[in-house]
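Fold it.
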Amino acid sequence: MSERDHDRAAEATLLASRENDYGADYRDHYLTLYRDYVASADAISERRNTANGVFLSINTAFIGAQGYFEVDANEYTIIQAVLGLLFCLVWWRMIQSYKTLNGSKFDVIQLMERHLPLAPYTTEELVQKTGPTLHRALSTVESYVPALFAVLHIAVAFINFTHIS
């Protein structure tokens, strides 16, 4: 399915009821749904930030504990490194999932804006893509953090093993 066909199908699904068929409250209900949908996108962003904070705290505590207790190289060093890498992988995957979910939400918001007098989210995306300043998606920048922690987990394990030898 082409992008244009996809947009048409999504818009037809979004506008399942036409204004003439719906009744006098169509515009008021449409604006209320738009406002609520934007709020739901904001709520997802808040959950994303909370989850990032949890993963950041876990990884920071994990690396900090390894340094504080001066863990000697043994089977636990490998277990700690593997667990740390798994946390990083789950964190990275969660970021990708939120990226997809937020992308879908904002696609629907932009479809809704086609039927409103102003389109702030659509305009914001246009400005970001064509403006003079390079804009990186938050999810791209976020993805660097679990990758950096993964490198730290590997480095701590490596240092512990080479320090003992």
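The two ends are 59 Å apart (CA to CA).
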